[in-house]
Design a protein that fits this description.
- It is a single chain.
- By secondary structure, the protein is α/β, with parallel strands linked by helices.
- The chain has helices spanning 37-42, 71-109, and strands spanning 2-14, 20-32, 51-57, 62-65.
- Strands 1, 2, 3 and 4 form a four-stranded mixed beta sheet that branches.
- A hairpin with a 5-residue loop joins strand 1 and strand 2 (20-32).
- The chain is flat, with a radius of gyration of 33 Å.
- The termini are far apart.
């Protein structure tokens, strides 16, 4: 016995040029079950042979549209990345500097073995 479950979702895709493409997205799940014919011959419940297709059309539509980001949006993102790099570098530098100072103090006091 083979059973297929098909899910169909309508889709609307709008390009930057204004062109609209109507399409569908499909999702398929497949299940197979072996039917023992010896059980069926003895009158026991063995399953129903065949291929079954169950489908569902989604009531929701997916809308995808292309758009461009402005140059100022790009600059803002770039500044955020550069600022984050400088912040992490500052944290690492501070950690290394303070660790070195603590080690130097222990060295001066003779606590390093």
């Amino acid at each position: 016995m083979r059973q297929y479950y098909v899910q169909i979702v309508p889709m609307r895709y709008q390009r930057i040029s204004g062109e609209v493409v109507l399409s569908n997205q499909y999702s398929v799940t497949y299940h197979a079950k072996h039917i023992d014919l010896a059980k069926a011959a003895r009158g026991e419940q063995a399953g129903l042979p065949g291929m079954f297709v169950t489908y569902e059309i989604s009531p929701l539509m997916v809308e995808v549209s292309e758009n461009r980001r402005s140059f100022t949006h790009f600059l803002t993102g770039l500044c955020a990345i550069v600022g984050g790099v400088f912040t992490v570098a500052g944290i690492i530098d501070s950690f290394v500097y303070n660790s070195y100072r603590a080690f130097q103090k222990k060295l001066e006091l003779g606590k390093v073995s």
